[in-house]
Amino acid sequence: MMTIHQLHKPGATMASPDHGDLTIKIVETEDERFKAMLVRAIVYMHEQLCPYSEEFDLNDHAATQIVGLTATGEPVLTARIRYFNGFAKIERLAIRKEYRGLGYAHRLLSFMLDIGRTKGFSRFYLHAQARLREFYEGYGFRLVGDAFSFSDHDYVEMELSEQLQLVSPSMHIGSTPMVLNRPENNTQLLGPLEHGAFRCAKRIAATERSRG
Q1: In the prediction, which pLDDT does 12 show?
Q2: What's the pTM value of the predicted model, to 2 decimals?
Q3: Which of 13, 65, 184, 198 has the maximum number of C-beta atoms within 10 A of its C-beta?
């Protein structure tokens, strides 16, 4: 398993030994997807009594799924992101009850915002349970529209518009197209197709030299 984005930073408060360290990442395997869905079932269906048909709303295959795992692979948290014209929608943030109070919610949200920024988004939108309004306000989200309810919980619309100078992924079109083929979890590193391209280039160069 590719493990990146260690949540604990130097000097940060560590979780108890029973909880272990945590890795937060984009889902890459069916096992990770199952674990992400399991966390949602525990938090939303069991704890908050959300009906299955409302929790699993047919949008999961159109979203980027996030999962948080301990060093032993225990699923701790999850969320998903969907992308629309001009903004990214943050959804389904969930942390198992026994892992709350350790700062993971802050690190999960920061991770998701960074994913959006990497894709060129500076506008983010979410439906927050009303009781969590102040948490999101701490990140610069503001209320928009009116309050509403679904799955027997009260929600508010919140939006964050940042004034960041982001590098648009479109800059790679016509110049460095292979960057857009990199795995989502490691966009800063060369992807497998790029390594393949280099092997091909070396092979062609070697052929040219042998002919010369």
Answers
A1: 35
A2: 0.80
A3: 65
